[in-house]
Amino acid sequence: MKKMHAKDILLPTLALFLICLIATVLLALTNNVTAETITQNEINTANAARSEVLAEVDGTAVAAYTDEAVEEQTGLAYCEGQDADGNTVGYIVTSVAKGYGGDVKVMVGYDKAGKIIGFTILDCSNETPGLGQNSKKPEFMQRFIGKQGELTVDKYSNDGQNIQAITAATITSKAVVKAVNEATVAVQNLTGGAQNG
After folding, report:
1. How many Cβ atoms are within 10 Å of 119's Cβ, its own excluded?
2. Number of separate domains in the chain
3. pTM higher than 0.85
């Protein structure tokens, strides 16, 4: 059996340390170089989603969105849509609820009366493909448009305050409705609770 010397252990250890150090430095540099681009992409994505859920209100084009604020107590994020004169014409709320496989994140656009005029699912990637992920389909998201007040899930009906559940994805449907209801409460709080269900 060959006798081990200190250099037999020290050289591979030193080589591994240098490799790790170089990799860490390169990752940090890459992060610094791309951080601004990543931030700008996130802003662009958020603005595109805002434009999707609140492009206009009662024929008035939304010219600007306020900086998004996060309500610490609820964890909801919201901003106001403003016309060209800076008047608030609607609200956008981002909300999250626990679905079947993980968080489901939604963005809801409201007019000043609290009626849903735009809706999108931002993330349902943890839900079951072909079932819960069907919540991103336009035919499901369209079920929320024109609704106002607290909503409920129904297996068969999309009338009144009911949102018809996605077939075989009731848990996801309930999560989406819960997220929307939390967003609605936030809008009611912003506007002094003037909305009627």
Report:
1. 22
2. 1
3. no
Is residue 34, in this structure, part of any structural domain at all? no
Q: Would you call 22 helix, strand, or coil by DSSP?
A: helix
Helix ranges (H only) for the chain are 6-53, 138-141, 170-190
pLDDT at 145 > cutoff 90: yes
CA trace torsion 68, 56, 165, 139 (10° rounding):
-130
Task: Give Cα 28 to chain centroid, integer Å.
Answer: 28
Give the domain extent around 79: 54-190
- Rounded Cα distance between 162 and 185, Å, is 17
Q: What is the mean pLDDT of the chain?
A: 88
114: left (phi over 0), alpha (psi -120 to 50) or beta: left
Least confident of 30-39, 48-57, 144-153: 30-39
